[in-house]
């Protein structure tokens, strides 16, 4: 939770082994998407280090997976006169949860919606595809954020070149049809 608070996130709740974190409410800093992305990368680095330390003791921990989405949500105190709690509800929140779940089959640890990428001027990452998430009828473009050294690697450049080639081939195929 210290990492979340260092990035000005709001810890909404814990559910099982999951954390629900909100950026942009109750305050609304203009760079909330960038803060969320930096927080996700910091949590990922922390948990990877934690996994390595426990593995050295012979205990294997599962990967931490994170989903990020940006957009409108209903935020505020929910409940009744006797019990209420601060929460956020809506499609934006549900989509972030589905992106977290998409990490497992994708083999990623952080899955970011295009809505976040558009709000981060210096986003460094790679596209992972168009995903049709549970409960949605339209595909959503998703990305995996990369640390600067991995983004600058030859493998990432080869990945980008392969995607460009596939796009060219798809365009040629459409024209031929």
What does this molecule look like?
The chain has 177 residues and is α+β, with helices and mostly antiparallel strands. Helices cover 44% and strands 24% of the residues. The chain contains six helices and eight strands; from the N terminus they run αββαβββαβαββαα. It has helices at residues 2-6, 32-56, 91-106, 114-117, 148-151, 154-176; strands at residues 10-15, 18-22, 66-68, 74-79, 84-89, 110-113, 125-131, 140-145. A four-stranded mixed beta sheet has the order 3-6-8-7. The chain has a two-stranded antiparallel ribbon with strand order 1-2. The radius of gyration is 18 Å and the shape is globular. The mean pLDDT is 91.
In short:
The chain has helices spanning 2-6, 32-56, 91-106, 114-117, 148-151, 154-176; strands at residues 10-15, 18-22, 66-68, 74-79, 84-89, 110-113, 125-131, 140-145. By secondary structure, the chain is an alpha+beta fold.
């Amino acid at each position: 939770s210290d990492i979340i608070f260092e990035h000005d996130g709001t810890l909404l709740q814990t559910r099982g082994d999951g954390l629900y974190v909100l950026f942009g409410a109750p305050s609304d800093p203009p760079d909330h998407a960038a803060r969320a992305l930096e927080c996700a990368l910091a949590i990922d680095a922390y948990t990877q280090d934690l996994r390595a330390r426990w593995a050295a003791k012979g205990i294997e921990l599962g990967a931490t997976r994170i989903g990020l989405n940006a957009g409108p949500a209903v935020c505020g105190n929910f409940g009744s006169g006797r019990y209420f709690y601060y929460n956020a509800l809506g499609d934006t929140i549900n989509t972030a949860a589905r992106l977290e779940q998409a990490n497992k089959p994708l083999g990623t640890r952080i899955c970011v919606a295009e809505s976040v990428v558009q709000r981060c001027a210096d986003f460094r990452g790679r596209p992972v595809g168009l995903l049709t998430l549970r409960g949605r009828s339209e595909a959503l473009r998703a990305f995996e954020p990369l640390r600067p050294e991995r983004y600058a690697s030859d493998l990432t450049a080869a990945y980008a070149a392969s995607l460009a080639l596939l796009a060219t081939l798809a365009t040629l195929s459409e024209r031929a049809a």
